[in-house]
């Protein structure tokens, strides 16, 4: 799965918790989301956004406040698609989607999920055949 195809698939399958996702889909989406978040953060810093509250007001101009709102909206928008991608990736490695709840364990859970995301595909398993190229 290619870089752009993985990101399109991320949004196309945002509530698909039943299929499989290859490792490339997970890691490419991770890179996309980090690049977008870092880009928005850099824009916010260029416009001198201060997240510190100064007398109850967010310091910065209207553009800076708009960028912060876009950052929050994007962060909220990727929660559900990311959860579904992680579940599909777990399915690809032959694990149940309920393993995602290991991520709720402070510190250790994130490391365990990261290790699971790094496993190779399991071949045909109970969650379906090997990932087929989608029609995006």
Automatic annotation (TrEMBL):
Entry GO CC: plasma membrane
The entry's keywords: Membrane, Transmembrane, Transmembrane helix
Transmembrane segments: 25-47, 59-86, 98-119
Pfam families, alphabetized: DUF805
Highest taxon above the source species: Bacteria
Keyword Membrane part of the UniProt annotation: yes
Matches recorded under PANTHER family: INNER MEMBRANE PROTEIN YHAH-RELATED (PTHR34980:SF2), INNER MEMBRANE PROTEIN-RELATED-RELATED (PTHR34980)
UniProt-recorded name of the protein: DUF805 domain-containing protein
Native organism: Listeria swaminathanii
